[in-house]
């Protein structure tokens, strides 16, 4: 083989190697891009769920306070019924 043929073969191998490396790099970049996109979506969903949970907890506290007030009022009415000579149904 002469020098021209060897040079051509080495250049071809170099070009093919570069193409393979670029292809693999692009695939990795696409995967990383999809991963980042999925991570962003999960963080947004986590933010929404955290907000929903805080609202639900606030509502639970409000309902517990309402229940406490209702039980106090029921007890007051039962005492009033007993004071007036009535009986409290079971």
Task: Report what the structure shows.
This protein is mostly helical and 90 residues long. Helices cover 90% and strands 0% of the residues. It contains 1 helix and no strands. It has one helix at 3-83. The radius of gyration is 38 Å and the shape is rod-shaped. The relative contact order is 0.04.
Give a short summary of the structure:
This protein is mostly helical and 90 residues long. It contains 1 helix and no strands.
H/E series: H
| Oligomeric assembly | single chain
Instruction: State the shape.
Output: rod-shaped
Number of strands: 0
- Helix-strand category: mainly alpha
- What's the main sheet like? none
DSSP helical segment count: 1
What fraction of residues sit in β-strands?
under 5%
Q: What is the straight-line distance between the termini?
A: 109 Å
Radius of gyration: 38 Å
Task: Let me know the average pLDDT.
Answer: 84
Low-confidence stretches: none
Helix fraction bin:
over 70%
Question: Which structural traits does this protein have?
Answer:
90 residues; mainly alpha; 1 helix; rod-shaped
Topology:
Blueprint: H1 3-83
């Amino acid at each position: 083989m002469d020098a021209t043929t060897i040079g051509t073969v080495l250049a071809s191998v170099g070009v093919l190697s570069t193409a393979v490396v670029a292809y693999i790099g692009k695939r990795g970049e696409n995967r990383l891009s999809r991963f980042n996109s999925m991570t962003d979506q999960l963080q947004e969903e986590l933010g929404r769920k955290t907000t929903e949970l805080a609202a639900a907890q606030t509502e639970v506290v409000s309902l517990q306070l309402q229940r406490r007030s209702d039980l106090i009022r029921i007890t007051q009415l039962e005492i009033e019924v007993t004071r007036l000579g009535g009986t409290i149904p079971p």
